[in-house]
Amino acid sequence: QEYHNAIGKPKLPPLWALGFQQGSTSYTTSDIAMESVRKYKEAGIPLETLFIDENYMKEYLPFNVDTKNFNMNKMVKELHSNNQKVYMSMHACIPVYD
């Protein structure tokens, strides 16, 4: 009790963060990722968040998107229109060129 009086009570995370979340390193294109989302919907499984791993990064460069394989604007708009969130994994990769 004294501890909580000193620092305050913990806050609940947003409700979407407590829901079902899906991610995979096999999402090599935004179409593959969105197909997974559609399959969850067809199966009647609620999906709050889609995780996109480092495959979206162009040549694994930080803050770059492989626009050939990932249409992020379209994907994010579609997810948000369904009240779903998207989480893009950020890896501090340093590519090695031969």
List keywords for this structure.
single chain; 98 residues; alpha/beta; 3-stranded parallel beta sheet; 3 helices; flat
Characterize the structure shown.
This protein has three helices and three strands. Strands 1-2-3 form a three-stranded parallel β-sheet, covered by helices on one side. It has helices at 2-7, 30-42, 72-81; strands at residues 21-24, 49-52, 85-88. The protein is flat and about 60 Å long. It is α/β, with parallel strands linked by helices and 98 residues long. The mean pLDDT is 90.
Question: Which helices and strands appear, and what pairs or packs with what?
Answer:
Elements: H1 2-7, E1 21-24, H2 30-42, E2 49-52, H3 72-81, E3 85-88
Parallel strand pairs: 1-2, 2-3
**Which strand-content bin applies to the residues?**
5-15%
What would the principal axes of the Cα set say about the shape? flat
Series of secondary-structure elements, N-terminal to C-terminal:
HEHEHE
Euclidean distance between termini CA atoms? 59 Å
Mean pLDDT, rounded to whole units? Answer: 90
Largest β sheet strand count, sense and barrel closure = 3 strands, parallel
Question: What is the topology, as strand order, of the major beta sheet?
Answer: 1-2-3
Number of strands: 3
Tell me the helix content.
25-40%
**For the CA atoms, what is the radius of gyration?**
17 Å
What structural class do helix, strand and pairing data support? alpha/beta
Low-confidence spans: pLDDT under 50, at least 5 residues? none
Structure annotation, total helices: 3
